[in-house]
Amino acid sequence: MFNNLIFIILFMLGFYALVMKTNLIKNVIGLNIMEAAVFFWVISFSDVGGEVSIHKLGEEVTKFNDPVPQALTLTGIVIGASTAALLLTLIIELNKFSGTIDREKIEGLND
Amino acid sequence: MEIPTETQPEVESLNKLMKKTLVSVVLAGVALALYRSFALMPGYQGLNLGLSNYIIESGLKDTGSLNLITAVLYDYRAFDSLGESTVIFGAVSGIVLILSRKMLPVSSKGLSFIVKRTLGIMTPFIALFGLYIMSHGHLTPGGGFQGGVILAAISIIFSIVYGSAFDYRRYSPQTKTALETGGALTFLGLGLAGILMEGAFLQNLGFLTAETGTLISAGSIPYINIGVGFKVGAGLAIIFYSMIQKTFEEDF
User: Boundaries of each MrpA C-terminal/MbhE domain copy (chain B) (predicted)?
Assistant: First the structure.
């Protein structure tokens, strides 16, 4: 059950960075760590000790790992990359607008 | 009414310490609860695995794709992959819209002569590797998304090593936009061809199947892979380009 433990540690690390750090780029990094933890857990949970789920020509494999969680994880990675890029772009704009990327020092957004 | 200025930083740091402790305690509690509930979960074998067993047993027969993950992505769940590439398209559109500035990027001069020559020799091989990963998605590990990221890396390395003006001249944003749109239209066109020939959107085209294990087999999966690859590569290159454009404008 090491994968559960590692998942919890990684997830809590990312959540801590998301809650406690005031630097917005560090928040995005924390979000990505949480994502990576979930992907790691899904893949390690579905590992039943079989082969990689790709057929080989002229070779009969009796036991495969489940391909469905791997396909879902691939989807998740792509979505995560897109959202991270969009978040970083918004942070770039915010830096141009208010001169800081610290979320407690942002001023002038009320105007 | 007067707060002594010397003690204020101390109060602030004490506040921060308290906040940190509180958050740590809460997180530790959540972690403990998670750990306890993991112990109650059934193992993977205890789940209902009917769909997975079906795909493992007859995925090769249904789709002709050796790589079962590709079979899931571009045949069983192809509509979902279309939505996924739409998300990338939306992200690229949003980023370009937010960072839009009609301005030729001012380039740095790039790195040294040695690095430029070395990259000049290596670039065709990187491109070949990306195309290989893209077009062999149904036979070996890889596929459209992975190969597209490798292609986008070429553009990013060009911007760093030769300076961004070189990248702008050789692969202008218009070219990248055309590539991205072309990839998306390839995907949609194959879906519509599925309606016309097989009766359902994104159904695998039966007449394209060939002997299993050859490069052009598995119906429309290789073509979808190539379209998605170009779309993802061009999209990521556009994202990088939009960001670096702004940076250079601020620096110079």
Answer: 22-106
| Residue entry with tokens 């990259």 | B119
Total residues found in chain A within this entry? 111
User: Is residue B223 within 8 Å of residue B190, measured between CB atoms?
Assistant: yes
Name the residue among A96, A82, A78 with its Cα closest to residue B249. Answer: A96
Name the residue facing B69 among A20, A53, A57 (closest C-beta).
A53
Whether B91 shows a pLDDT value over 80: the answer reads yes
Percent of chain B past pLDDT 70, that is, above it, reads 88
Measured between CB atoms, which of A8, A89, A93 is closest to B34? A8
Secondary structure of residue B28 in the 3-state scheme: helix
Q: Is B152 exposed, middle or buried (0-12, 13-18, 19+ CB in 10 A)?
A: buried
Asked whether residue A52 is assigned to any structural domain, the reply reads no
| A75: contact with B, CB 8 A cutoff | yes
Torsion angle defined by CA atoms of residues B4, B9, B11 and B16, in that order, rounded to the nearest 10 degrees: 160
Q: Which residues contact B140 (CB under 8 A, 6 or more apart)?
A: A54, B66, B67
User: CB of B221 within 8 A of CB of B63?
Assistant: yes
In a domain, A87, yes or no: yes
Which of B35, B143, B145 is the closest to A8 by Cβ? B35
What gap in Å lies between CA B35 and CA B47, rounded to an integer?
A: 19
Q: Is residue A71 part of a domain?
A: yes
Secondary structure letter of residue B206 according to DSSP: G
Model ipTM over 0.85: no
Number of domains in chain A: 1
pLDDT at B2 over 60: no
- Could you tell me the CATH number of the domain that includes residue A38? 1.10.287.3510
Give contacts of B25 with chain A, Cβ < 8 Å. none
Domain boundaries, chain B: 64-251
Contact between residue B99 and residue B245 where contact means Cβ atoms under 8 Å apart: yes
- Collapse the DSSP code of A59 into the 3-class scheme (helix H, G, I; strand E, B; otherwise coil) and give the result: strand
| CA angle, residues A71, A73, A74, in degrees to nearest 5 | 65
